[in-house]
Amino acid sequence: MFSRQTAWRGWTPGLALALVLSAGALLARGQEKIRIKTADELPRHSYKIPGTVSELVKSDGALMSLAKQVRADTEADLAKYEIADAPTLRELTGVLLSVALLEDRLDDASRLIERLRELEDKEAKKLTTGLVAGSYIAARRAAPDDRARFQATFEQTLLERLRPLPWDVVGDILEQTKGRMEILSEDLLLGMAKGSLDPVAAASNGEIGADTARSALGMGTTIRVQLPLKERILAAYDKVIAEHRVTKPDIWAERAVALSPAEKRTPIVVGIWDSGVDVQPFKTQLFVNPKEQPNGQDDDGNGLVDDLHGIAFDLEAHPTPELLHPIDALNAPVADVAKHMKGFTDLQAALDTPDAAAVRKVLSGLKGDEVKNFLEDLGLYGNYAHGTHVAGIALDGNPFARLLVARISFDYRMVPFLPTLEWVRREAASFQATVDYMKQHNVRVVNMSWGHDQDEIESPLEKHGVGETAEKRAELAREMYKVQRDGLYAAMKSAPEILFVVAAGNADSDVEFDEVIPSSFDLPNVLVVGAVDQAGDPTNFTSFGRTVQVYANGFEVDSYVPGGQRMKLSGTSMASPQVANLAAKLVVRDPSLKPPQVIELIKQGAEKVERSGKTLLLIHPKRTLELLDKRSTAAAGPTGR
Asked: Is the predicted pLDDT of residue 8 greater than 50, yes or no?
């Protein structure tokens, strides 16, 4: 589960805006830039604000003062540093775009939008970036003093820009943008600010870091520029979607392969290293520790109580017998939260379902103080359901797979717990213990649909007011993250006989530049997976990079959630277990295969496609298994021996 999600930093919902002004405008002649190779090398900034962040977002004067400071720092950084990472450039320029719109610098905003498009490498995003902002600018120029004419011009301009776009390329983004726009409100944004950003200012006597400042600016710009046009935006998107909506072809059904129980194969153990699994939907496919009994005792003397079907660690990285994440802390009944989760995902996918209508109604009625509980309930249910959903995908069509659960716990609260060196050392030890446990029980394939980066330590430190300065805080986070990163790397490296299939992440960023673990790991027993949609086109969220080797369907994938119900979810979390599924079927068919051989077979059988100037390998289970069968037949020789 990727806890690193797109924040409300951008002016357009769901879109991580960013770009950079031209080097000539920012760099003194003859000055040589400092090259930035990783996100951690970027400078830290902090800002003193009056009161709370939620108050700042509503205050024109305070917001404009912050905007001026953030703009100065951002432009200075872009002048001083050579940043080769396009997502980072897009993020920084998105900040400049927000400021330009706040300051009504329309010409500058137009140039920033154009630069944003230049920095996009995904065709769908290149075509859709800045549509709303550009239409706003055009309407402001056409009718600066006539509100009614301004709004009508805005809607007409947006329609004129939307209609010529190739629907087969941009349709998913337009539908998702509409779905996100439907739930956007001032109360929702201010509730998020109160729950997640106000604690930062409170913990540090009004000092906030750059990420918090950028989020505040994004919220402030959205409230002032976008929300007043919400109905016009929805009207334009509704018209275009109604005119063009078609169902994309699904390329995955004909590629699927289910193994038959009649094959009489030897079962293999598949590890689901995730947020926990409800084992009930998989009763016929469970790994069973033969030396353990469910009696509240450590029967086999391995330090774990009741590890009948796997190993688990709680949020503090202490062993626990609970393989499924507890949900005692839910504020609403679990059935209601499950419906909200389903409706929320339907809204984002622009699906017109009863659950989507219900959650839209709930969100539209939320007051600022209610937002925190609602969003934390969604986060907690996400932890509760995620691993079960992943397990269902990984085991599908493989009666010879035996599920071993390996639970790792994630914080779901808007103000997470305070990380410490003691905790990261304990977590690093839990990584090794988990891999050792899987080695002991002959796990062959492991799915890891989760990831960490340094910001997931640095941000909680800021929210708890730790660190005399932003740089000191970064230094402490760097030390902690190194322990976490090195521990996970060593654990996975220590098991060359296990294939670890890893989700790339959902940040639309380079996993190596951001140093995301484990998707940035370059090991012969690691296969990193990106996400495409049902037609094989890259999703707008999938991360990428040198270590991302293959792609699988990560859009509206159906699987189990706890209790045995089924739900469709999207993400690289859903793409990765499809590759783990294929890998497990290969090992069932040929138990002698080593991880590098499995990876090579999956890549050889994959379909090469060109998307936005890049070559992607889309998995093809049927072709890959046929390759293995042909190889096995050839190895057996003409006599079949």
From this structure: no
Helix, strand or coil, per DSSP, at residue 430? helix
Write out pLDDT tens, residues 146-174.
Answer: 999 999 999 999 999 999 999 988 998 99
pLDDT tops 70 at residue 3: no
Quote the pTM value.
Answer: 0.91
Is residue 125 a contact partner of residue 12, using CB atoms and an 8 Å limit?
no
- Are 525 and 496 in contact by the 8 Å Cβ rule? The answer is yes
Query: How far is residue 437 CA from its own chain's centroid?
Result: 28
Nearest to 509 by CA among 2, 65, 1: 2
User: Dihedrals φ, ψ of 35, to 5°?
Assistant: -80, 130
Place of tokens 């409800």: 278
* Separation of alpha carbons 446 and 57, rounded Å: 44
Is the Cβ–Cβ distance between 522 and 528 less than 8 Å? Answer: no
Other Cβ atoms closer than 10 A to 355 = 19
What letter represents residue 123's amino acid?
Answer: E
- Between CA 48 and CA 68 the distance in angstroms is 13
pLDDT tens, position by position, 485-513: 999 999 999 999 999 999 999 999 999 99
For residue 518, say if its preceding peptide bond is cis, omega within 30 degrees of 0: yes
Residue 354: band (very low, low, confident or very high) from pLDDT cuts 50, 70, 90:
confident
* Dist CA 431 CA 451 (whole Å): 13
Residue among 413, 552, 439 nearest 493 (CA) = 439
102 CB contacts (<8 Å, ≥6 apart)? 63, 64, 67, 217, 220, 221, 224, 225
CB atoms inside a 10 Å sphere around CB 238? 11
The encoded tokens of residue 60 equal 């024109």
Tell me, what amino acid is at 43? P
For residue 326, is the peptide bond before it cis, meaning its omega torsion is within 30 degrees of 0?
no
**CA-CA distances (angstroms) from residue 533 to 301, 448, 603?**
46, 20, 19
Separation between Cα atoms, residue 256 and residue 407, nearest integer Å: 28
| HEC secondary structure over 401-426 | EEEEEEECCCCCCCCCCCCCHHHHHH
The answer to whether the beta carbons of residues 627 and 605 sit under 8 Å apart is yes
> What is the pLDDT, as a whole number, of residue 611?
85
- For CA atoms 316, 317, 320, 324, the dihedral sign is positive
